[in-house]
Amino acid sequence: MSTEPAAVLFDVAEGVATITLNRPEALNAINGELAAGLIAAYREVRRRDDIRVALLTGNGRAFCAGADLKARVRSDAAGSPIAPLFRTEDPEGVYDFDPRKPVIAAINGHCLGGGFEIALTCDILVASEAATFGLPEITLGFFPGGGGPVRLPRSIPRALANDMLLTGERIDARAALERGIVSRLFAPDALLPAARAMAARIAGNAPLAVRAMRELIRRQENLPHDDAMRLAGSMRWIIGLTEDAKEGPRAFAEKRQPVFKGE
Question: Are 168 and 221 in a shared domain?
Fold first, then answer.
């Protein structure tokens, strides 16, 4: 039995799952164990009704410094570079597995390469003032393969995204806030408490409405305006039929906190 600590830690309290990348000695670089652990954690978030929100962070001075390049070298030496283009295993990896519930990325330090791409898959990004961001792959002879060249230009102005993607230069947390990559900055010691408070606030809302809102936000991105509005109207009507949609106004009228049950 291995005595090595788990590469990903998982804890649930009051509707919030905290997922911690736990390879601090390697700046939480992505290897097979960490990738598998993150997918397993996301599967738990998707599966469990008692989890309403997930909080993703890193242990140590990095959120995630990207792919473990030592592991990459070993992998490249062991197999054909063409084989990954024709995968036969489950295609849902760390960059495209959808836990179907909101995920907050609490970016505590270096957020680079594949780590930045993991963060870009999350619904809300908040950061420590000590965080740094970058996609340096172009300086190593290749380019980001986890969706960065697609997600980043869809998240911020194209000129700013192109600058990061083509130069490979890092930016600091203040620049990430100004460019709209993250929504809030906190002092390093205040990051996790603040992110947990955000997660608790979301977890306190009606879970079906939250999940429907999240799905609408994601699905409407590439729809024409009229189709997006039609989808929004349909989903709003469905959520309006739930018991939670009745509980909210009732609690407001009775001047009490609503008790949402996901029904």
Answer: no
Asked whether the beta carbons of 55 and 39 are under 8 A apart, the reply is: no
Domain with 221 in it: what CATH number?
A: 1.10.12.10
Number of domains making up the chain: 2
Name the catalytic one among 25, 89, 129, 137.
137
- Please tell me whether residues 27 and 74 are part of one structural domain: yes
Distances (CA, A) of 40 to 19, 33, 109: 10, 10, 23
How confident is the chain (263 residues) per 10-residue block, as mean pLDDT? 82 97 95 94 96 97 87 51 43 80 97 96 97 94 90 95 96 97 98 97 94 93 92 93 93 92 88
Statement to judge: residues 161 and 244 lie in one domain: no
Cβ–Cβ under 8 Å, residues 219 and 231: yes
Q: Which two tokens stand for residue 33?
A: 């164990």
> Active-site residue 137, yes or no?
yes
Among the listed residues 33, 117, 178, 215, the single catalytic one is 117
The answer to whether residue 25 sits within a structural domain is yes
pTM of the predicted protein model: 0.89
